[in-house]
# Entry
Amino acid sequence: MAGPGIRLPGPGATGRVDFGRSTQEQVPGFIGLMSILHAEPIASAFGRLLRKELIVDDYVQLAHLFEEICVLALHRHIAEELLFDAFAFDMYWDELREDVLRVRQLTGNQKFCENFEIAAERARHYRTDFPPKLRWQRRGRPGDEPPGGPGRGGSPPRNDPSPRPVPATPAGT
# Structure
């Protein structure tokens, strides 16, 4: 069962998960997160995560930070769209999962990093719906169909080489 901060498609929805839309008001919070990730003591561990060169002390430290960030997203304090576009939480979870599961087992705290785990799965869905931008090219974002629905409305593509119908002229003119 989804909690109030987790947005699943409702009746009549397109079947896509709603990742929210980022707003101008969320920018300071996002910049604050970036500042934390790019300052010590986290910066070195985050860099090692990106290079897949983690050391023992990095795993739980990063997992807990990602848990805190994911809580903000799942409770709609910052749009998942913004975080999932900037970070690879699904890949971070894959790298840190075994250590998180070990801490859960050792401490008996099954809630340890649960929001990080949930957000990682949602990030996988985001990655499917929004492939790398270099592959998007002219494709619109999912959910941004032209007026009138998919395949309707909008102007025809420019420089369309297909033949145009010739207007009918009355016979004898």
